[in-house]
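Hey everyone, long-time lurker, first post.

I ran two proteins through the pipeline my lab uses and got sequence/structure pairs for each. Pasting them in order. The first:
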Amino acid sequence: MQRAVPAWQQALLSVVLLALLLGAWELAAGRGGGTGAAVDPEYAALLGQAAAQGGQTPFPRPSEIAARLWELLRDPFYIRGANDQGIGVQLAHSLLRVAAGFGLAALVAIPLGFLIGMSPLLSGALNPFIQVLRPVSPLAWMPLALFTIKDSAISAIFVIFICSIWPMLLNTAFGVQSVRREWLNVARTLEAGTLKTAFRVILPAAAPTILTGARISIGIAWLVIVAAEMLVGGTGIGYWVWNQWNNLSLSDIVIAILLIGIVGLLLDRLLGAVARLVAWQD
């Protein structure tokens, strides 16, 4: 049996490991030339950046990234043009797209999952379609979405819808199918109707499983939106990352990676808190 480790010890070890990582990074970047690490001229020319910084592009140190992060966070919501918007604005665009696609997926997946879970006939009929479509990469739908919808922002929302629907649909169906038969028999004994049984018995019992599917979906949706925005451009954190790569702004790319991870963590924690609240009420 392993003894429980206090949370403060775990946090302290995390801080120590982070400090060691940042320290090693700072030293390695300094030995590599700091701001003077040269780039292969042919590579720079390929990117159209041969003249940028006199042919120099360093890999940034943590201290330089921190300074740049502070600069970005001092005014994160500025808008100076279509291609010059703050990091907060870009994150907001991405979050709005994820919320729209995820919300639409929930509106479709949860009721349909209920029907599949409650009807063996419907479950057997739809299962082949689900198993064929579920493994398809969400980005594979992007060309068709752009061709039919003809709007990059709505196409990105559609891709989020596609990638979000499957975990919620399958988890909802599984949660409904896993409701204890005894509870359903009691509902029949009390002559409860189908709708009343669904809302009073099945939904509370399946809610934790449904929220688990939603938690998986939101993580996938946040992951996919970055790639989708790199393809369609315009606005969003994915477009911002690609734009900074074109400018060889490595500090901004590292900052974007950090912010993407933090936002993904917060989204996961939010749905995790909702799931714990539902489990506690049950």
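...and the second, right after it:
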Amino acid sequence: MKKKLISAVLCAVMTASLVAGCGLSGGTSASSSEPAAEPAAEAAEPAAEGDAAAAPAASGDVITLTMAEVNPLENTVCGAMDLKFKEEVEKLSGGQIQIDLQGGGVLGVEADILDGMLGGTGTVDICRISAFALTSYGTKKSVLLSLPYTFADRNHYWNFANSELGQEFLNESEELGLGVKGLYFGEEGFRHFFTVADKPISSPDDMKNMKIRVSNDPIMTEMVKSLGATPSPVSMSEIYSSMQNGTIDGAEQPTVNYAGNSFQEVGPNLTLDGHTLGAMMTIITDNAWNKLTEEQQGWILEAGKTASDYCREVSEQKENEVLEQLKADGINVIEITDKTAWQAACKPIADEYATGDLATVYQALLDLAK
């Protein structure tokens, strides 16, 4: 009877994944968050009660935890953070815990990995995800991290990440019984607009009637509309050619990604408006966490703190290096020192999403800029 129950639950999870799991890596959507949340939460219960919830391992046992990363490990901020976490866990544990870090998306795209982790398949134990990815599975607070012009600067974000409020965001998935626990935050820099040669952007007025590519995400789409432009559903792989042939006038990416994809060749105007920060979160399944002793869990948390601090250092350093090189290469880097008009244009988006109890949480988040 127990096997039949587990099979039924797993079938429900797979069905929900096919319906709502697509496109998560490009952003979250309000329409898909509700149907995905219930099956994922239901799948976590049998895993917690069944054989997978084994007793903590003895301190002398060697435990291998599989960690997934959808991006390459080399020459990426997220890869550097993952590698630091692996190094610290293995050092602190004296080899008791080994992290089998698989990068480059070899274990699947973010949506598939999350479906498996929340469904209790046991393939992936730890994963670095977009900080607001779990909104498609029922979390509420993390959507606030994707609202445009929320973070005044990097210090503001890290004030949040290292605060009690940040810990509340990390704890939300565990409190909802989704089957995963948040470990630590990271970031890969602010996202900025870049445009074709004859259409530089210095203010929202300059964006009127432009066609701007953004990810298939309701908040990002609303942001572009609020700034007067038309959102264009072009895939990431088509940005370069679409700007080259005039299908779109611009797009947006973190600075390092902008340069890494050679977008400056077709979009030589880079407007540093910093509309969204590329916030990241690393999570672990309840099954994996519960197999660890209290001491081992402490090592994981300590390693996470070290990796998070390292990410802050590496991300800012890498972005500064890239910006200096872009300026030296003659790219038109447009600094936005006053974001008042940009924030005013996008305020209705925050008013729409930060409502009810979330309004208080969002205000607390904004106050951490002080």
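Reply from user beta_strand_b:
Welcome! Quick read of the second one: The first helix runs from residue 2 to 20. The radius of gyration is 21 Å.
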